[in-house]
Write a structure and sequence with these properties.
The complex is a heterodimer of chains A (about 110) and B (about 110). By secondary structure, chain A is an all-beta fold. Helices cover about 0% and strands about 55% of the residues of chain A. In chain A, β7 and β8 form a beta hairpin. The radius of gyration of chain B is 13 Å and the shape is globular. Chain B contains no helices and eleven strands. Classes of the chains: A mainly beta (about 110), B mainly beta (about 110).
Chain lengths: ~110, ~110
């Protein structure tokens, strides 16, 4: 299995631009998580989906952030408009069932907003 | 605010020594605990999980859980330079979410 796939791996953009991050979970996994990692705040959960349905988006920092999962094999995290404080590494993770032990992380997208 | 607290380090130990990493949590509803290892520039990878009070051993790694004290630890025996990484402690409960600490940087000196 290829594992969780994220694209792009690196993104540099200017303040005010729209940024779209993409994730393909492991086939058969029914939970998908979006995390943000910074030095100051560590690894924070932004939103998670179960069977393509958003379950908890309480970690989404502002209305500038939105996430979708149109099908079981694809999810996007969009930031519009982007700001320098959004610079971070964004991880997608997927999991099969309720067993939290089976959570696998993708390689991450390193975002820099200038 | 449900939190998981870790000392950011760096924790420096000589090669072959025991490295002891500690974590406390505030949510008494947390039922499961995990240690992830994260190399610089890489994603977190699960190395240990623990669900019951006491010790759980896996090779050179031992996880310890004390729910009364809300304390989790990870011991790494015979530390190797390849163990140098950031170790993230995470707690999980009935909400399906993992709450992560900010991580402890471990440096094993050859």
């Amino acid at each position: 299995d290829a594992g969780v796939i994220q694209s792009p791996r690196h993104e540099v953009t200017e303040m005010g631009q729209e940024v779209t991050l993409r994730c393909k979970p492991i086939s058969g996994h029914d939970y998908l998580f979006w995390y943000r990692q910074t030095m100051m705040r560590g690894l924070e959960l932004l939103i998670y989906f179960n069977n393509n349905v958003p379950i908890d988006d309480s970690g989404m920092p502002e209305d500038r952030f939105s996430a979708k999962m149109p099908n079981a094999s694809f999810s996007t995290l969009k930031i519009q408009p982007s700001e320098p404080r959004d610079s971070a590494v964004y991880f997608c993770a997927s999991r099969m069932g309720r067993n939290q032990e089976t959570q696998y992380f993708g390689p991450g997208t390193r975002l820099l907003v200038l | 605010q449900k939190e998981v607290e870790q000392n950011s380090g760096p924790l420096s130990v000589p090669e072959g020594a025991i490295a002891s990493l500690n974590c406390t949590y505030s949510d008494r509803g947390s039922q499961s605990f995990f240690w992830y290892r994260q190399y610089s520039g890489k994603s977190p990878e699960l190395i240990m999980s623990i669900y019951s009070n006491g010790d759980k051993e896996d090779g050179r790694f031992t996880a310890q859980l004390n729910k009364a004290s809300q304390y989790v630890s990870l011991l790494i025996r015979d530390s190797q330079p390849s163990d140098s990484a950031t170790y993230l402690c995470a707690g999980g409960g009935a909400t399906n979410k993992l709450i992560f600490g900010t991580g402890t940087l471990l440096a094993v000196q050859p």
